């Protein structure tokens, strides 16, 4: 059996804001990636702004390692992917995030996804060090992704290639479904409609009078389109009562 490829490391080159590092960590952990490497972060490391922005991705931030150069950060990696929207004159194979994810899973060595500074992206020398460029197909009139968005795109595509639990893997799971409240008996809805119609009559809503029946049919059609639950109907009764009470106080 072929050994599974190790998860890719996420390398942030000269990141500028601790908040963005935290958001990138959050994006990583959402899809099962935990190894972050920082190259010359502008404000040093650790950064107090990273923790709150990570929304609890402490395991990623606690394990983050700092390097002076990109070459040092990826020295143990066999395949390096530079994420950039521009080729910057460097001739490299270009892959989409999906194709890069397949490539990562097919390699037995350690891979690295490399991201540039928030404002300018990777420099030409950074891209030259990589083996492959990863480019996201994007609106040509607005090709701006923030750092966490770029990280989450690549992390998500990598996670999609994980083996399922049936295949012996630990694939990520969708959030558990929350059951909806069962629909209320129709009699409760009729009581709500009656309550609403009484208050509408008192307020003079049905005008002109000859349109009353047609308006009532439209109202009933609208209210019976939705699957009202018992709690929904109770809430609507409360709203109608409150509106009537407020009108009397004026």
Describe the protein in words.
It is a single chain. The protein is α/β, with parallel strands linked by helices. The chain folds into 2 domains: 9-167, SPOUT methyltransferase, trefoil knot domain (Alpha/beta knot), CATH 3.40.1280.10; 186-249, no CATH class. It has 10 helices and 7 strands. It has helices at residues 18-30, 50-54, 58-63, 70-73, 97-106, 124-129, 147-160, 186-203, 212-223, 230-249, and strands at 9-13, 36-39, 65-67, 79-83, 94-95, 111-115, 132-134. A 7-stranded parallel sheet has the order 3-2-1-6-4-7-5. Helix 1 (18-30) links the parallel strand 1 and strand 2. Helix 1 runs parallel beside helix 7 (147-160), helix 5 packs across helix 7 (147-160) and helix 8 (186-203) runs parallel beside helix 10. The longest helix is centred in the last third of the chain and has 20 residues, at 230-249. The chain is elongated, with a radius of gyration of 28 Å. It starts with 8 loop residues before the first strand and ends with a helix.
Q: Quick one: CATH superfamily of the largest domain? A: SPOUT methyltransferase, trefoil knot domain
Taking Cα atoms only, what radius of gyration do you get, to the nearest Å?
A: 28 Å
Helix/strand order = EHEHHEHEEHEHEHHHH
Mean pLDDT: 87
Query: Structural class, from secondary structure content?
Result: alpha/beta
CATH architecture label of the largest domain: 3-Layer(aba) Sandwich
Termini separation (Å)? Answer: 78 Å
The proportion of residues in beta strands is 5-15%
The spatial strand order of the largest sheet comes to 3-2-1-6-4-7-5
Number of helices: 10
Oligomeric grouping of the chains: single chain
Q: Count the strands?
A: 7
Low-confidence stretches: none
Helix fraction bin: 40-55%
């Amino acid at each position: 059996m072929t050994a599974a490829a190790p998860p890719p490391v996420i390398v942030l080159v000269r990141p500028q804001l601790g908040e963005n590092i935290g958001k990138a960590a959050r994006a990583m952990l959402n899809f099962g990636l935990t190894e972050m490497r920082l190259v010359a972060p502008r404000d040093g490391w650790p950064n107090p702004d990273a923790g709150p922005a990570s929304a609890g991705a402490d395991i990623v931030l606690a394990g983050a390692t700092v390097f002076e150069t990109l070459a040092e950060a990826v020295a143990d990696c066999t395949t390096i992917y530079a994420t950039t929207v521009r080729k910057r004159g460097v001739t490299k194979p270009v892959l989409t995030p999906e194709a890069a994810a397949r490539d990562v899973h097919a390699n037995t060595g350690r891979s690295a996804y490399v991201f540039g500074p928030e404002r300018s992206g990777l420099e030409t020398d950074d891209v030259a060090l990589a083996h492959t460029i990863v480019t996201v197909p994007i609106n040509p009139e607005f090709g701006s992704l923030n750092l966490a968005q770029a990280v989450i795109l690549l992390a998500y595509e990598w996670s999609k290639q994980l083996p399922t639990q049936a295949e012996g893997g630990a694939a990520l799971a969708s959030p558990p479904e929350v059951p909806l409240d069962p629909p209320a008996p129709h009699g409760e809805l009729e009581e709500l409609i009656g309550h609403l119609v009484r208050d509408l009559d008192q307020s003079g809503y049905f005008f002109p009078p000859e349109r009353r029946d047609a308006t009532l049919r439209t109202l009933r059609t609208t209210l019976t389109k939705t699957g009202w639950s018992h709690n929904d109907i109770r809430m609507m009764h409360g709203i109608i009562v409150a509106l009537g009470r407020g009108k009397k106080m004026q």
